[in-house]
Write a structure and sequence with these properties.
This protein is mainly β. The chain folds into 2 domains: 92 residues, Ribosomal Protein L25, Chain P; 89 residues, Ribosomal protein L25, C-terminal domain (RNA Polymerase Alpha Subunit, Chain A, domain 2, Beta Complex). The chain is 11% helix and 39% strand. It has 3 helices and 12 strands, in the order βαββαββββαβββββ. The strands form 3 sheets. Strands 1-3-2-6-5-4 form a 6-stranded mixed beta barrel. β5 and β6 form a beta hairpin. The longest helix has 11 residues.
């Protein structure tokens, strides 16, 4: 993992929608909660500007983060982010504490490589359809990948790729694949172009 993220947080005791609105409006801070591990859930607040900067990085969503709460660092991952339906600004965040000895279940992005040079598209006139922009994985925190990659260079027209076609890093598994063949969902395919021929006058 190349990037690292540290967020400064403050514990908070005030609860409810009114308190959250005041926090966002008057203090430019975001209400959040951190839970899991051997400790109970704790209400915290984050500086909105600092969080927004971190959210600009795709890696933030699939990294073990350091959250310094009143100066005490804790390791956690982002589990949920609520955004305003119209403004798309963050409204609330949920963080899950991580333990180095326990597996995490996380969704991570999938990067599809060589889309422009895919044989089925460039040489055979097909169209590429991507069905999965992210995939749920399970691994120890130390093995958490920033993203997964799928190489499309040699994919021919009529080919469908599934979860089982993803080359996983060491120590990483896809929980859905342990549930049987029916859960091996398609992630991308190259199909014939659906463009209709122009009708004759």
């Amino acid at each position: 993992m190349s990037a690292s993220f540290t967020l400064n947080a403050q514990s908070r005791s005030d609860a409810g929608k009114g308190a959250s609105r005041r926090l966002r409006r008057l203090e430019a801070r975001l209400p959040a909660v951190i839970y899991g591990g051997s400790q109970g859930a704790q209400s915290i607040s984050l500086e909105l500007r600092e969080l927004n900067k971190a959210l600009e990085s795709e890696a933030f969503y699939s990294h073990v983060l350091t959250i310094s709460i009143d100066g005490q660092p804790q390791q956690a991952v982002l589990k949920a982010l609520q955004r305003h339906p119209a403004k798309n600004t963050p409204m609330h965040a949920d963080f899950l504490r991580v333990d180095a000895t326990h597996k995490l279940t996380m969704k991570v992005p999938v990067h599809y490589l060589n889309q422009d040079t895919c044989v089925g598209v460039k040489m055979e006139g097909g169209e590429l359809a991507i069905m999965a922009a992210e995939v749920e994985i399970a691994c120890l925190p130390s093995n958490l990948p920033e993203f997964l990659t799928v190489d499309l260079a040699d994919i021919h027209i009529g080919t469908t790729l599934h979860l089982s076609d993803i080359q996983l890093p060491a120590g990483v598994e896809i929980p859905a694949l342990t549930l049987g063949h029916d859960h091996d969902q398609p992630i991308a395919n190259v199909h014939k172009s659906r463009v209709e021929e122009p009708k004759a006058e």
